[in-house]
Amino acid sequence: xxxxxxxxxxxxxxxxxxxxxxxxxxxxxxxxxxxxxxxxxxxxxxxxxxxxxxxxxxxxxxxxxxxxxxxxxxxxxxxxxxxxxxxxxxxxxxxxxxxxxxxxxxxxxxxxxxxxxxxxxxxxxxxxxxxxxxxxxxxxxxxxxxxxxxxxxxxxxxxxxxxxxxxxxxxxxxxxxxxxxxxxxxxxxxxxxxxxxxxxxxxxxxxxxxxxxxxxxxxxxxxxxxxxxxxxxxxxxxxxxxxxxxxxxxxxxxxxxxxxxxxxxxxxxxxxxxxxxxxxxxxxxxxxxxxxxxxxxxxxxxxxxxxxxxxxxxxxxxxxxxxxxxxxxxxx
Length: 332
Known about the structure:
2 domains, TIM Barrel, 22% strand, alpha/beta, 8-stranded parallel beta sheet
């Protein structure tokens, strides 16, 4: 039979062990709670900051954004609420789609409610069962993003080339600058059927004699070439003259101007456009070409197919911020 002393010591040991376990439980519970709370704060802050960056990418100004705290009625917790007045030239579904794509790899879920009447939408960001951010979108009654128009002329292309053909079939609004050549005549319907425009390049590199213009040609011959050009490429939106060519520097240039003017055909030179070369300055040159545009202004870029593809991501960003990509004929 166990002695009274042994039983007392056992009970005392168990009591002390219970106190130790209670202390450990309390400390661990406090640490875990602090960790969860800290994680929630970090998640909310990170998500809200990324959300605001996303709005800035769309060119939505701060004056259209209102940030406040509201209470979740079911949990009585305070959550961040961001109200956005969406410019009338931008659609709410476009923003929401970008939100999904931006946060697709995060362990977040979304709850979206759209009201057909008035176009208001509410989108909540949830971490598990916890709502961490609420956003509200409503269309502004009179705010329009004050951006300009951009057009692209792709220089000296071969419509029969696979890369060019793919671009012709794309939904992008483009003008293709063609050097006059009999083989290109067969491609004109293909270009127009895909909603694209074309212009004609006048320089020193034209090989086909009936389209060739030389600095030492007689006036009669220059006029004959012009008639052939107009007959074969009369549906061109404009003619573009390389102002570094010998033909441009000759007196025959004046004859060319005169004859096109009589036929009400628009004529421009390379210097009339923002020329983008495929070099390390192309991104800076592109930015400078659009930085001072306003809603009623436009900028036309002349560039090669390679250069156009090189700035593809920058063009997407411009469209996202509210710049309109239009056909060059609207700006010239």
